[in-house]
Amino acid sequence: MAKTRSIVADYGVYLVLRIFVCVIQGLPLAAGHSFAKALAWLVYKLDKRHRQVAIDNLKHAFPGRYTDAEIDKLVRAVLRHFCTLAIEIIHLPRRFHANNWRQFVELPQGDVLLRQMLQNRPLMFVTGHFGNWELGGFILGALGFKTHAIARTLDNPFVDHFLRVKFREKTGQQILSKDGDFERIQQVLAEGGVLATLADQDAGQRGLFVDFFGRPASTHKAVALLALEHKCPLAVIGTAKIGESMRYAVMVEDIIFPEEYDGQPEAVRAITQRFTSALERLVRRYPEQYFWVHRRWKHQPIAKMRRIAKSQAA
Fold it and tell me: N or C of the chain: less Cβ packing under 10 Å?
């Protein structure tokens, strides 16, 4: 049974968030970066559970590559990156616009992106919890492209509306709910639109298991299924931070054309593995910019779990 939410509590959280955003936007960016470093140190000290998740994930992803001390240093860098990212996202609406985007973003493969966006067919941007995944839609909206992004609706309706209107949809991008907007998602692709989605979330026991850093990772099938149904290319991208003062590069790691898999019996698996491998290559280049604190490998194939249980019982 779902827990009943308190409107008063939700609104109280929303007010605290609004005050926090106002304070951060009132600070110079350099001061915000200093605050982010202090916040990352505090999170490292207090949040033992997520710290340990990140340590375990990194040890499995890079076996033998890092010493324990280097793993610890990398976890601290991950926390600094995402605390800094939060500060920069708060500053983004007041600093970024169509006339100054080159101050913040490099497009080393801009011609590849533009060519795909100008084709008379739908396009899906596939990315993960890497770098600044919110920036791509912000950039395209500021440049006049109409885009849509799939995101989970937050439980707190006041916070969800605030973040969606003031940040995610600030430059014209429209957010579609991953849970309740499937028909609209289909319509966007059917009409030749541009859709962005995160593709590195655990899909539960019923997901499609593909290799990610040498381990089976439960992955949603919907990305590959939509690509095949709508003949929609997949552009696997990552927005990596390459310098201070909000400097990022939008990198195109792969372009996947669904027609290359016509007639293949394992087309969904092949496409899912291909974009997952592309995301892995991006993360390997910038490991400190991946969200290692989330349980990407939370679920494992049932047969593997049975083998583990059997070996533990022996």
Answer: N
Euclidean distance between CA atoms 247 and 231, whole angstroms: 34
- How, if at all, do strands 208-212 and 194-198 pair? unpaired
3-state helix, strand, coil in the chain (%, to 5): 55, 15, 30
Q: How many helices (H) and strands (E) does the chain have?
A: 11, 9
The sign one gets for the Cα dihedral 201, 207, 208, 209 is positive
Q: Nearest-CA neighbor of 135 among 180, 81, 183, 88?
A: 88
Give the pLDDT confidence of 126-163 residue by residue, as tens digits.
Answer: 999 999 998 877 788 777 788 899 988 899 999 999 99
Q: Distance (Å, rounded) from C-alpha 272 to C-alpha 81? A: 28
pTM here? 0.91
- β-pairing, 234-243 vs 247-256, is antiparallel
Query: Given phi > 0 = left and psi -120 to 50 = alpha, else beta, which region is 231?
Result: left
In the chain, domain spans: 7-307
As a whole number of angstroms, the distance between CA 56 and CA 149 comes to 31
User: Would you mind telling me the total number of residues written for the chain in this entry?
Assistant: 314
